[in-house]
Write a structure and sequence with these properties.
About 35% of the residues lie in helices and about 20% in strands. It contains nine helices and twelve strands. α4 packs across α8. The chain is elongated, with a radius of gyration of 25 Å.
């Protein structure tokens, strides 16, 4: 399906759609051709934006782009076509085209809460190879311009978003409401398929939440899957950007499956250790 948007207008839409897309560029022409060098079009799995000349020429380029999507990785590919010989078009010239495919990030991060730490964190994760979903029940909390890899979602109850999350997603619970935090944590743990769950808070909050999870019959493995306090222990500080850097560091570790440094100060403990500590 061809739309009426120009190619440059389509790019932001394609980037936010989290689907493969491609740019086709006429690099050079010889003789009579339907479009000049520098002409571009954008191609997705179902739509095209703008045109590099129509006819069988364009049909071949669209199909080649969609074939390249199947590799699952970004590609660059050139095609040299003689219009009469290769496309049965009567222009009589020849064109050289470049296809560049763009494949969306495989990893997704869902951030619940749009407070100070989340705003600072978006300045970092907005630059990473991630698909970021940012969720809150207060639309006014979101900035007017978001990073290109980020989509905001407003729900009366942010717990609703958990139903549409894909398996193996990463989630951060950074809301302003402890009651909502607990609802989000239980819903995320109930899914049983999250790659990572992080909860902002103190050791005291961690203890209270994990004791409550134990009372609500969550398993030890499920309780220990909740990373609270979230972030790298080796990154100190309480300012929003300092906390954001700590959290971003832990997210990057998850992306690369890296262990935390062996020399770190071990501030993250299991819920059972916290219970024993409180009883002393």
């Amino acid at each position: 399906m061809t739309t009426h948007l120009q190619w440059h207008q389509a790019i932001p839409l394609c980037e936010r759609a989290n689907q493969p897309w491609a740019i086709a560029t006429v690099l050079g022409v010889r003789g009579s051709t339907p479009r000049d060098a520098g002409t571009k079009m954008v191609i997705t799995a179902t739509e095209t934006y703008d045109t590099v000349g129509g006819g069988k020429l364009e049909w071949l380029i669209i199909n080649k782009a969609r074939e390249l999507f199947g590799t699952g990785k970004p590609e660059q590919h050139t095609e040299q076509l003689v219009l009469g010989q290769n496309t049965q078009q009567c222009c009589g010239g020849a064109v050289t085209l470049l296809l560049e495919t763009f494949i969306p990030a495989k990893n997704t991060l869902h951030i619940f809460g749009a407070g100070h730490v989340a705003h600072a964190l978006l300045k970092i994760v907005g630059e990473l190879d991630l698909r970021v979903h940012w969720i809150d029940n207060r639309p006014e909390q979101f900035p007017s311009v978001l990073p290109i890899n980020t989509q905001s979602h407003v729900y009366p109850n942010p717990v609703q978003h958990i139903e549409v999350m894909q398996p193996q997603a990463m989630a951060l619970v950074l809301t302003h409401d402890h009651s909502l935090d607990y609802q989000l944590c239980t819903a995320l743990l109930d899914r049983g398929d999250c790659r990572y769950i992080g909860l902002i808070g103190s050791r005291t909050k961690s203890l209270r939440f994990k004791k409550r999870l134990q009372s609500d019959a969550f398993s030890t493995d499920a309780i220990n899957a909740l990373n609270c306090p979230v972030g790298l222990d080796s990154v100190p500080g309480k300012q929003p950007m300092e906390v954001a850097v700590s959290i971003a560091g832990q997210i990057i570790q998850q992306l690369y499956c890296l262990p935390e440094p062996a020399t770190k100060k071990n501030n993250r403990v299991s819920w059972q250790q916290l219970v024993n500590e409180l009883a002393e």
